Amino acid sequence: MPRLIARQTSLWNAFSFDLLGEQRRVVGNLAWPRIAQATNARVRVLPEGSPDGGVTLTCERGRFHIPFTYASRGWTNDVRFELVSADGRTLASAESVANRTGRNREFQISAPFTGVLRHTARLARHRFVVERDGTVVGTAAEPRAVSVRREVHLDLTVDVETPVQGFFLFLALHMI
């Protein structure tokens, strides 16, 4: 049984996911904003410092924010995502580095540990591996190729808190 599951809340809403625990009980929510805005955006729609431009993760530990920053700009942008608590602490961080095709196929994780989240399957079902020091410490995968609501299961062998697991699910969903 996976440790955490992200399941699309509704067939009609592709930008909200329930986070389900081991007994498939809702333990949180992952919600994309109506208007995404980088913290270092050149053109601003939202006011400076507004948390409304990033993804919101809510769970039993509280409300967390996932803002994003452009690490570099060009034909393709390198993007950094962070999981930030209500008191401003960064709990997790990862950077997507675009390759020559413009497809971001992996995230370089810098916190809570140094590692990589890599997309490994290219057919109908998406699969991701989480590596730490070259060793696979977890997987995130879609259980079915076709479903009414998107679902991704995360199973980690390292002990991380629910908000960080939700952050890894967000990264996997971001690459789909």
Describe the structure.
By secondary structure, the chain is mostly beta strands. The chain is 8% helix and 45% strand. The chain contains one helix and 13 strands; from the N terminus they run βββββββββββββα. It has one helix at 162-175; strands spanning 4-10, 13-20, 26-31, 55-59, 62-66, 68-72, 78-84, 90-96, 106-111, 115-119, 127-132, 135-141, 151-156. A 13-stranded antiparallel β-sheet has the order 5-4-3-2-1-13-12-11-10-9-8-7-6, covered by helices on one side. Strand 1 (4-10) and strand 2 form a beta hairpin. The longest helix is centred in the last third of the chain and has 14 residues, at 162-175. The relative contact order is 0.19. The model has no long low-confidence stretch (mean pLDDT 86).
How does the SSE layout of this entry go?
Elements: E1 4-10, E2 13-20, E3 26-31, E4 55-59, E5 62-66, E6 68-72, E7 78-84, E8 90-96, E9 106-111, E10 115-119, E11 127-132, E12 135-141, E13 151-156, H1 162-175
Antiparallel strand pairs: 1-2, 1-13, 2-3, 3-4, 4-5, 6-7, 7-8, 8-9, 9-10, 10-11, 11-12, 12-13
Summarize the structure.
The protein has 176 residues and is mainly β. The protein contains one helix and 13 strands, in the order βββββββββββββα.
Biggest sheet strand line-up: 5-4-3-2-1-13-12-11-10-9-8-7-6
Query: Which stretches of 5+ consecutive residues score pLDDT under 50?
Result: none
Largest sheet: 13 strands, antiparallel
Helix share, percent: under 10%
Overall pLDDT metric: 86
- Rg, Cα atoms, Å: 15 Å
Shape: globular
Number of strands: 13
The first-to-last residue Cα distance is 22 Å
Q: Which structural category do the helix and sheet elements fall into?
A: mainly beta
**Helix tally?**
1
Q: How much β-strand is present in the residues?
A: over 45%
Which series of helices and strands comes N to C? EEEEEEEEEEEEEH
